[in-house]
User: Which sequence fits this backbone?
């Protein structure tokens, strides 16, 4: 009886082993996407553009090194390097290229007609020739526009509100930035409407800043409008110092320049636009076509005032303007 019971137990055990499910096969590793990034920024390293973009990717559940690798190239403020950098990225065969700034987006467009391109921080993408239209971009490019050239007129209006008697305004621009010609054109129209004489001053590099401010002084400019540019952004503290030395109230296109010592800014939030670029990358990696993704334009603009700078310049800001501001730096 005991042997019979033991044989029965052994038989049942062997039967269970035979019918037990096999261990699941190891799952293949998650596909690691290759993303290219091309920037016009003037400093080495990834900088604020890449960090904001990566923040947007993390919010969507992507972990760098686990879900994607970022092949980053920056022109260090030398726009003439962008075509070679764009060609270098294309050779790496990324699934999508993120291009920061209009010069970088144009270089990426010239380098490939097949790899999807997500533009961020660009000016007017239609006027620049990047897309056919905002609603139907066409081709392989879509993304986020951070600026509207018509905003230049509103910025001049704010300067006129702060300085009612100003009659001559200098505009600092970089002729190598393809967006600036559009903005200068809009500024000319707004200046005529406001009864202000516009004085154009070029600066293609930081080395030209001193001579540019000397030219503004010679022209008896009463205020300065600084157009958005990677070189101006990276050297914003130097621009603020020169403006203070020249006793020039400044209007900027970005909060960071006011935080560095500029007087006032009215512009869309650039980091928000860069983070929004990640949503386009996510859609493209999941199969969407750039031609089917409408280009986003900014809908919210920030008015930032540096009250310390105003006091240093002897400017009294009206209470209505201060109440209208999104942020007042004290």
Assistant:
């Amino acid at each position: 009886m005991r042997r019979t019971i033991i044989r029965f137990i052994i038989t049942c055990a062997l039967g269970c082993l035979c019918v037990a499910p096999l261990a699941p096969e190891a799952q293949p590793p998650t596909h690691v996407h290759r993303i290219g990034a091309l920037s016009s920024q003037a400093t080495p390293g990834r900088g604020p553009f890449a960090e904001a973009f990566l923040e947007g990717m993390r919010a969507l559940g992507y972990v760098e090194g686990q879900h994607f690798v970022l092949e980053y190239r920056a022109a260090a403020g030398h726009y003439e390097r962008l075509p070679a950098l764009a060609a270098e990225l294309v050779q790496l065969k990324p699934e999508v290229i993120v291009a920061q700034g209009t010069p970088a987006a144009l270089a990426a467009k010239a380098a490939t007609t097949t790899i999807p391109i997500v533009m961020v921080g660009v000016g007017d993408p239609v006027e620049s020739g990047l897309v056919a239209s905002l609603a139907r971009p066409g081709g392989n490019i879509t993304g986020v526009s951070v600026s509207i050239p018509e905003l230049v007129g509103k910025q001049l209006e704010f300067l006129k509100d702060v300085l009612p008697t100003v009659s001559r305004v200098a505009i600092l621009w970089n002729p190598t930035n393809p967006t600036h010609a559009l903005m200068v054109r809009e500024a000319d129209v707004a200046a005529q409407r406001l009864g202000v004489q516009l004085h154009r001053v070029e600066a293609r590099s930081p080395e030209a800043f001193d001579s540019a401010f000397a030219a503004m002084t010679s022209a008896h400019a009463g205020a300065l409008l600084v157009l958005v540019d990677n070189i101006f952004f990276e050297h914003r503290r130097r621009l603020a110092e020169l403006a203070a030395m020249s006793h020039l109230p400044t209007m900027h296109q970005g909060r960071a320049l006011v935080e560095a010592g500029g007087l006032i800014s009215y512009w869309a939030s650039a980091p928000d636009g860069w983070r929004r670029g990640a949503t386009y990358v996510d859609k493209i990696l999941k199969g969407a076509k750039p031609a089917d993704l409408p280009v986003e334009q900014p809908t919210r603009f920030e008015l930032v005032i540096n009250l310390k700078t105003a006091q240093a310049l002897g400017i009294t800001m009206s209470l209505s303007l201060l109440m209208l501001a999104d942020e007042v730096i004290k």
